[in-house]
Amino acid sequence: MSLKTFAHGIHPRENKEITALKPIRRFPFPPYFVLLLSQHAGKPAKPIVREGQEVRRGELIAVANGFVSVPIHSPATGVVKKVGTSLDFNGKMAPAIIIIPYPGSLQQVECWQSRDIDHMTPKEIIQGVQDMGMVGLGGAAFPTHVKLTPPKGKTIETLIINGCECEPYLTSDHRVMLEQSDDIMMGIRLLLKGVMAQRAVIAIEANKPDAIELMKKCSEGEKQISVAVFQTKYPQGAEKMLTRALMKKDIPSGGLPADIGCVISNVATVAEIGRLLPRGQGLIERVVTISGRGVQRPGNYFIPIGTPLDFILDQVGLEGRAHQVIFGGPMMGKGVAFLETPITKGISGIVVMADAEHKSRQKIYPCIKCAECVNSCPIHLNPSTLGLLARKDEFDQMAEDFHLFDCFECGCCSYVCPSHIPLVQYFRLAKEAVRKKRSAA
Amino acid sequence: MIDIQALFVAVSLMVALGVLLATILAIANKKLHVFEDPRIDVVEGMLPSANCGACGEPGCRAFAEKVVKGGATPGQCTVSSSDGREDIAHFLGVDVGAQEKRVARLACAGGNNVARQRVEYLGLPTCQAAHLVAGGGKGCVWGCLGLGDCERVCDFGAITMNEWGLPVVDEEKCTACNDCVEVCPKDLFSLHPISHKLWVACKNEVFGEDAEIECEVACTACGRCAADAPEGIIEMKNNLAVIDYSKIEKVTDTCIQRCPTGAIVWLGEKGWVKKGVGAKGIIRKTPLPIG
C-alpha cells in the first residue's frame, strides 16, 4: 500500500528516539506559577481574582473576553501573589497572574460540574470546550471552540485528528496516543457530535507503528472513525498538507479548513477534551516533551501550565552549558531568551540544544539560484525570489505578487539553503512590516 | 521618372497640415494656459532637494509650492542652512518663521558595557529581525539592541554607533526627518526641540534593583528627581520618570543631581551629557559577558 503524502517537503533527522519510549510522568509543583493572560490567539482573558486571594486548583481565575478568547484556571491551590505583568516568550511584558501554591495542600482538582455527555447538544459541547479553556495544543494555541464553529453556510463533513507530529524531537502526541487512547476516542465522539461531522480520520505518520496499531484497534467497530497512515515527511502535520494528502483538496489561500468541509484538531487537544469535558474540569496541565542533547533526563511530562522554564530545566538537569532553548520543535519553535518565561497552553515541547548541536553564526552567502528551496516548499512558493525581494525591502511586492501570507513558516527553505540564507526570518520580518503598514492604513 | 506634380501635392499637403495643427496648438496654449508661479521653481532650486519629508510635505517641490502660497514658512525646512532659509525668505519677501531646530533623541543609555545581554543572537543582523526573536535577548526588554538599523536608515549620516553599540546622534547633522523614529523596533527615538535639555535616557518599566540588575544606568523609579524638580514637571509613570515638556522653561539641572543611576541627564552643547553628582561612575570599557 502506498502511503498518503504531499509534494515537496524535507526529511530532517527525527531524534525522536530520545523520548519516544518514555512514558508520561508527572512533574513537581514549582515555587510559583506565572499565568499569562494571553496564552491563546485572540483577546487576552480578563482576570477575576485580586492580590492575596486564595484560589483552589482548577478554579476559574480569568474569564474569556469575547468569542475569540478562552478562560484560564488555576493550576494549583494557593494564593494570588500578583495581578500584574510578566515576561512572555516574545520578550515582551504581558499581563499575567502570579500564584504561589500552598506546600501542604492536598491539591485536589476542583470541577465545576460533571456533565451528562450522552444528552449534550452540539451547542453545549462547543460552549463546554470554551469553558474549559481549550486551545489547540499542537502549537498555534488557537481557541478550539472557534475552530469548531464553522462560518455560516458551511458544513463540516470530516474531522481530522492530527497525530502526525512531524516536528523532530517531539513525542508528546505519540505518547498521548499510546497512553490516552480511551480519552481520544471519547474526545472524537464528542467532537463528531459537536460539529455534526460524518466521519473522523486519525492521521498518523508511518514512523509510529505502535500508535497506528493501537488507534486501529480502538476504532474497530466505530463506523465513523478511521485511521489514515501518512508517509514520514516534514511538514506532514500542517493543516494544508494534511488536507492535500488526505482529501486531495487544497485549503484556499487565506481560507480555513472549514472552506473545504473539514476541521483539523490536534490529537492532544482531542484527548484533553475527552478527559476533561465529561468531568467539567478546566485545562490546567498539558503533556510536554523535554528533549535535546542538552538535557540530562529527557522525557514526556505532565507539566502544570504556568510553570516557569528555569524550574523545569532545574528539575530535568542540564548537560553542561545549554546553548539554545526552544519552545516547540526545532523547525517551527521559538527561541527563548528569558528563562523566567512560563509554560503556556500552546507549548508542546522544550528542546535544549547542547554544545555539539550548536551552530555558530554562519556566513550568509549570496543566492546561487539552485532552487533547492523551491523544490522543498510544501505550498509551492518561490522562496528564492521572496528572499531576494526581502533583502531589498520590497515587502509589498512580496505580499501582493508572491503570496507571502500563504507561507506558514515551516522552515523547509531555510533548512535546505546551501548559502545559509535565513529565509524564514526574512519572511517573518516582511510579514510584520506589511501587517504594521496595513494596520496603520 | 519622378512625378513632379505628385511630389508637389504631398509636400504642400504636409505643410498645410503642419500649419493647421500648429495653429490649433497655439490657440490651445493661449486658451488652456495654467498659470504657475515661476517663483516655485526658484524656491525649489534653493531648497536642499533631500526630499526627506521632515517638513511634513511629500517632497521639496510640494513644500516650495506651499511656501510660495504662504501656507508654510521657509523656516519649516529643517534641512536647509539658516543662510539658505533666509535667502528664500528674502527672495519671497516673507518672514523666515521661527522654527526651532529639532533633533532625534534616544531614550536608552544601556550600551553593552552597562546592560546585560542574556543570550547571543545569531540571526539576521538587523534590530527589526532580532526584535521578532524573543525580543532580541537583551536583559532589558525595552533597551537598544545595538544592531544599527537607525544608522543605516539615516540619510544624513547623523547617527553613528559608538563602541558600546549605542547610536549617537550628531545634532548638527540631524534634520529631524523621523526615519530613525519609524525604524526603531523598540520605539526609543523621539524628536525634541534642541532647547529641551532635561532628558530621561531610559524606558525600563521595572522597579528598583530588578531594573539595575539588567542595566546599571536604568531608571529605578526612586522618585528623587520628581521630588527635586518644580511641582508637576516630573512624574513617575509605570516605574519610569516622565517629563512634562510643556512646563520645561522653569527647569534647571538641580533635579538630576540625586539620581542614583544617572538615568536622567542634562544635555549640553555638542553632544555633551551631564550626569548628576549622585550618579555612580561607569568605568568599565569592555562589554559585559553574555549570560
Descriptive account of the structure:
The complex is a heterodimer of chains A (441) and B (291). Chain A contains 13 helices and 17 strands. With 441 residues, chain A is of the alpha/beta class. Chain A has 3 domains: 22-109 and 284-354, Roll (Ubiquitin-like (UB roll)), CATH 3.10.20; 113-279, Rossmann fold (3-Layer(aba) Sandwich), CATH 3.40.50.11540; 372-440, no CATH class. In chain A, the strands form 4 sheets. A 6-stranded mixed β-sheet of chain A has the order 1-14-13-17-15-16. In chain A, helix 1 (122-131) packs across helix 4, helix 3 packs parallel to helix 5 and helix 11 crosses helix 13. The radius of gyration of chain A is 21 Å and the shape is globular. The mean pLDDT of chain A is 90. Chain B has 291 residues and is α+β, with helices and mostly antiparallel strands. Chain B has 2 domains: 39-92, Orthogonal Bundle (3-methyladenine DNA Glycosylase II, Chain A, domain 3); 102-274, Alpha-Beta Plaits. Chain B has helices at 4-31, 38-46, 60-69, 82-92, 127-132, 149-153, 179-183, 209-214, 224-228, and strands spanning 102-106, 159-161, 167-169, 189-193, 198-200, 234-237, 240-243, 264-267, 273-274. Chain B has a 3-stranded antiparallel β-sheet with strand order 5-8-9, with no helix packed on it. In chain B, strands 1-4 form a two-stranded antiparallel sheet. A two-stranded antiparallel ribbon of chain B has the order 2-3. The radius of gyration of chain B is 29 Å and the shape is elongated. The model of chain B has no long low-confidence stretch (mean pLDDT 87). Chain A binds chain B through residues 87, 89-93, 334-338, 359-361, 422, 425-426, 428-429, 432-433, and chain B through 118-119, 122-124, 126, 128-129, 131-137, 141, 205.
